[in-house]
Amino acid sequence: MLKAELVHQINRLKKERGAIILGHNYMEPALYHTVPDVVGDSLELARKVAETDADPIIFCGVRFMAETAKILNPERTVLLPAAKAGCSLAASITAEDVRELKRRFPGVPVVTYINTYADVKAECDVVCTSGNAAKIVRALDADTVIFVPDEYLAGNIARDMGWPIAFPDQLEDGAKDFKGLIGWRGRCEVHEKFTPDDIAGVRKQFPDVVVLAHPECSPAVVDASDFSGSTSAMIRYVKESPAPHYLLMTECAMGDNIAAANPDRDMLRLCSVRCPHMNEITLQDVLRALKHNERVIEVPEDIRLRAKKSLDRMLELS
Ligand code: 13P
Ligand code: SF4
To answer: If exposure means fewest CB atoms within 10 Å of the residue's CB, which of 38, 79, 116, 316 is most exposed?
Structure first.
């Protein structure tokens, strides 16, 4: 009852203000299935936000996603309903770290996962998401690429491309003798918790289970699973395939969202791993954001322009 009342107030105010609400696939079910005009993975939300002319834009996701919306829509008000809503990957690298990588490995193109802040994107050549990472790396047509900040996503791409991966502490300056992916040791604090043993335990109990792993999981976990893809790719997979049981190696609200939309699918609940940052966004916060214009996301113009180049390049290449 409480949530239904909040949803009603949010949807009424959203209409009055001409706002658009975007929701990442990790929002909790009562929010995910009610107030967003658009839900999706990082790539779908970035594409959608590049097209919208609604104002304000309320971003139900984490800060780097709201920043992306602002980079693409400087003239509109972008609101993040939570105070911090960080991300362990975005916190794992600074703009100065990227400048140092470019000093050490001059001329090597730099790809950044979208899970970084605007000043880091501004230092890189192109952005990618979990939905297009290998495609973007291939499109650069280079034999060595720096990929930051997700160590595991980089490992999964390198394996898919048949490339070796090395980290800056393993390479001489210039990396003259190395061809492949130069990674960074950032990790998602949620996906790093899953292990191949988790999968083996569930397969023992449910031999016909289909296991889906987000590519932020370790390469060993992805290898032990049946499918790997972005959050939306996993949702589509469950919707379209008729397996008796599914196990998701990702943030656990998403399993609840899929279960609510597909009552005939059996989602196994191994998961108790909620992303603490996504979890900061509540219906109460969304209502407060709409009522009081909180919290306004700003990106300094010089950084915004350079970050936009990297994002535009991704949107063109994908
Ligand atoms: P997606 O782009 O696959 O939605 O992933 C975003 C994210 O933060 C996953 O942890
Ligand atoms: Fe960041 Fe991991 Fe949370 Fe995604 S799930 S927002 S990568 S901490």
So the answer is: 316
CB distance 213 to 222 below 8 Å = yes
Rounded to an integer, the average pLDDT of 109-130 is 98
Q: Which domains does the chain have, with CATH numbers?
A: 2-86+279-302 (3.40.50.10800), 90-187 (3.40.50.10800), 191-274 (3.40.50.10800)
Task: Give the tokens for residue 258.
Answer: 């899929």
Closest of 114, 108, 144, 111 to residue 130, by C-alpha: 114
CA-nearest residue, atom 8 of ligand 2: 87
Atom of ligand 2 nearest to the CA of 90: 1
pLDDT at position 288 over 80: yes
DSSP for 102-141, written as a single string = HHHSTT--EEEESSS-HHHHHHSSEEE-TTTHHHHHHHT-
Q: What is the pLDDT of residue 271?
A: 64
